[in-house]
Amino acid sequence: MSRDAIQHSIVEIVAASGVGGLSVRAVAARAGVAIGTVQHHFPTRSAMIAAAMTIVEETAEAIEAGSGRSDPVERLTGLTDLLIPSSVESTAGRVWLAFAAQAAVDEAVAAQYRRTWSRLQRSLAELLARARPELAWSRADAAATELLALLDGLSVAVLVEPGRISVGTAREIAQRRLAELLT
């Protein structure tokens, strides 16, 4: 079994059970491989946690890659929707939430979390600066920080409190604030 297939099993476990459900034994069982095979590719629990975070990092990379390709307002609108999970079962959203919780107690995870969050924030700031060239960089940067914090909070609400805030409501709130930031 390939490293990628084992990594996929790690992501599935974190999405289903959080970081607390992650163990070499659980990954081996889900992937249908021997424990030694998992340990060969991911020798520590921290390595498995970092592997799970790749799904979120891939989203950040897609955002960065696409940030210069189209109208910045259209990109911001699309990204605002993208960064709110599409459902309670969203794998990327559930992994991000588990990762954020683990970051509170694990410095290595916290460092990776901060790097990814910083990349997303910088991409949003660049798009805001392109959409509103009259803004000083510091204002675009502050607006991006605010927008990403709002999106994080709305994402948690969608994943944890779906009866209180639906995906549609979360996206309406985010789009309304984005429109305010763009005027």
TrEMBL record:
Print the keywords alphabetically: DNA-binding, Repressor, Transcription, Transcription regulation
Keyword Transcription regulation recorded: yes
Limits of the HTH tetR-type domain: 1-60
Extract the Gene3D superfamilies matched here. Answer: Tetracycline Repressor, domain 2
Kindly give the InterPro entries that the UniProt entry links to this protein.
Answer: BetI_C, Homeodomain-like_sf, HTH-type_TetR-like_transc_reg, HTH_TetR, Tet_transcr_reg_TetR-rel_C_sf
Cited SUPFAM superfamilies: Homeodomain-like (SSF46689), Tetracyclin repressor-like, C-terminal domain (SSF48498)
Where does the record place a coiled coil? none
PROSITE patterns referenced in this protein's UniProt entry, alphabetically: HTH_TETR_2 (PS50977)
Q: Which residues bind DNA?
A: 23-42
DNA-binding: is it a keyword of this entry?
A: yes
What is the protein name stated in its UniProt record?
TetR family transcriptional regulator C-terminal domain-containing protein
The protein's organism comes out as Brachybacterium hainanense
Origin organism lineage:
Bacteria, Bacillati, Actinomycetota, Actinomycetes, Micrococcales
